Please model this.
Amino acid sequence: MPESRFWLLRDIRAARKQGPESIRRRQQARLADIVAYARARSPYYRQLYHGVPDQITNPAQLPVTSKAELMPRFDDWVTDPDVTLAKVRAHVEDPSLIGEKFLGRYTVATTSGTSGARGIFLTEDRAMAVGTTLIAARIMPTWLGPAGLLRIVARGGRMAAVVATDGHFAAYVGATQMRNRSRLGRKQAEVFSVHSPLPELVDALNRFQPAVIIGYASVIALLAGEQESGRLRIRPVLVQPGGETLAAGEYQRIARAFNATVRDGYAATECLFMAYRCQHGWLHVNADWVLLEPVDADHQPVPPGQRSHTVLLTNLANRIQPILRYDLGDSIEARPQPCPCGDPLPAIGLQGRAGDVLTFPTHSGDEVAITPLAFGTLIDRTPGVELFPDRTNRADNVAGASAPGRRRRCRPDMARSAHRDRWPAHHARSRQSRRRTRPRTTRTGPRGQVPHCDPTTRNHSRKPPPHVLMRPLVGARRL
Model:
């Protein structure tokens, strides 16, 4: 049924006010609704759910799905016959269409493939409205309260998004749509490329003076260092790092550096509004519109207080490309007791992804920091590399992984060419950086070895699979 923004606003507020039982009823009704819709409109789900009871009262009655299974069946997966993979690929291959709606009614975003097979995801206007209303009515008031929201308004309401700008990535698409919506949007929202040299990024932020800054976590950590040094001079009210996990001390350092509230959430391209973090460090699931099931390796339920092998996601808002019991690959832990913050929404802990900042020498002998996201999008466009983990074995080697069954080697000349196209000013020094010295490492995630992400299961493990190929790429070394 069509829901107006006003209806969504009232329902989202009422769900939390009325407590856990009200949230559970909404979740169960919306699960039954989207399952019926998928069965009626999606040839893939019609076939998959053959023999499944008509009335779904428990998500465990449904089979598990995954990106690896769904993407090859894209045309049968979607619920609009006008949507085909060929048409959507033509859309995402055109950078001038970033932020433009596909067929005039669907927002399109892609995943880069750094933690699994690449994916293309469509979101309908209804689901976009659910997400923006959750942010406005639930998440921002929880994070900032009335006083914080007024401070954002007093500082001009400007938002800076520091994101990857070379593809149809969800954060860039969302920020672009916000800017294109109105003249006010163009004044209040600004996109800054994660590929920009740090001094240029600092200068641009100093000129813009955002009240809210969102961006890849390792970029935010770098910017906090610039703020501490005095080169960056901004006064944000809210800082929102995302995309990877930082050590607990890093969040506190960022908050001190900016004298701002620092909060993050849990989101994926498949569902942009899964959970938000409270002041006690727990992520609260928007369970009236999202279903997260912590499960073991056999997809059996894991009890609260125990870390899961993976998590199954059901997006209860988006019907164009139903995400139902979808293996997301993340490890979560459900909190057994109510959260001390008092929020009735279920609370989880997340074992997130970690990344290291890579540095490259310049002509002058200084070092330029390259964040994991910038490096990842570079590798994503290097011929012959299908997937890759965050792993190096010494200062001059980076581990790349090909997709199972597609063991195509990435030749060093291809990688250097891609690197030269992206960062031409630093290419002349790249060969000199291949010094066989022990690298210094600064962690942006939990202490210990970088978790390797197995592209066949998206399960974090300590050992690389057999198809990891060790190749000298661009002479990077980790700081």
In short: The CA atoms of residues 452 and 463 lie 7 Å apart. The radius of gyration is 22 Å. The chain has a mean pLDDT of 81.
